[in-house]
Specification:
mainly beta; elongated; five-stranded antiparallel β-sheet
């Protein structure tokens, strides 16, 4: 029977606050949104008598612009920043994993 070296218990929490507004001017629509995220993770391994913790915080935003043509077609452009917490990833190796951040452009 193999020896067990790990019996991790990971507790991860995330809280986010988001605000968004849309402005209409004729056939134009402008959208803007902001978000603040807080994350934390605690990793406990009773077999190795170890515990690690990490927390992250991020401010992200998005914006978009739409033009509504008389034909019903809507032309748009948007840009967004994002945050993906990696809490709990690589904690067993006692190294801290940074959150993944990215941006998206579309038209």
């Amino acid at each position: 029977m193999p020896t067990t070296f790990s019996d991790n218990f990971i507790c991860q929490k995330q809280l986010g606050v988001y605000a968004q507004d849309q402005i209409t001017y004729g056939k134009w629509r402008f959208l803007a949104g902001v978000r603040e995220d807080w994350t934390s993770a605690d990793d406990t391994n009773p077999l190795q008598n170890s515990a690690t913790s990490q927390s992250e915080r991020a401010f992200t935003w998005r914006t978009g612009l739409v033009y509504l043509f008389d034909s019903g077609i809507a032309s748009y452009a948007s840009f967004a920043k994002s945050f993906d917490p990696q809490a709990g990833v690589r904690m067993a190796a006692a190294t801290r994993s940074r959150p993944q951040r990215s941006s998206t452009k579309s038209a």
